[in-house]
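note to self: dont lose this again. the chain is below, predicted strucutre after it. 276 aa total, dont forget to put it in the shared folder this time
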Amino acid sequence: MTAGYLGKLFSLDGQTAVVTGGTGVLGRGMAMALAMAGARVGVLGRRRGLGEEVAAQIRAQGGEAMVLPADALDRDSLLAAREIVMRQWGGVQALVNAAGGTKPAASVGEASDVFSMSADAFREVVDLNLFGTLLPSLVFGETMVKSGGGAIVNISSMSASRALTRVAGYGAAKAAVENLTRWLAVELARRHGDSIRVNAIAPGFFIGEMNRALLVEADGTPTKRGKLVIEHTPAGRFGVPDDLAGALVFLCGPGSRFVNGVVVPVDGGFNAFSGV
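---
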């Protein structure tokens, strides 16, 4: 085994990757990581302007990228995006399902109780995270199967395996994403062989658009809840997008060719800590 061989295991040269939710904080970081590992990256999201910013950032670093305006919950728009990728780049070898999020009404506020939570908002959060993972997997996974295989990486959360206070709809939705990850991994491998794999990453606490006010004050210092999170994270800090790069590139590349159906925590030790 040579250094050159090991380098190839963690290289995405010649591959095409699509990142749903590629305009979000974590999606943007993951799109950049894939590009820096050598992949051509399709930045898929509803906000074309932000997609152009991400693609321009990738190109400024010497990478190759295109914007794919599409909604992860709209199969027709996903099919149109797939057609664009196929026409320009010929195939897809990696799909990262980073589209997701939550709504305040699908959580339990500090001054309220569970009985006041909106069932409609809960359903919307489940749709966004679960069906926003399923539909792109069906659309782009079909292409992978027909063109020789690939890797699907879903984005879960610590709230999937740990019942976090106040976080209701999001935790339930991400738990479903983890079950879907394992089911798809088994189903695709048994039907189509080991050339296609499905895994997930479960990030710990990262500052994004939807949780910023919950975790940090306007001056950047942790809120009461943010301090509690850091106290239960052995690394002693929130995650930053670059912290996901290593696990992501590994799961998308040939170095993980015998890894299937797993959920990799990237959480600074949060999941391992008992609190005492």
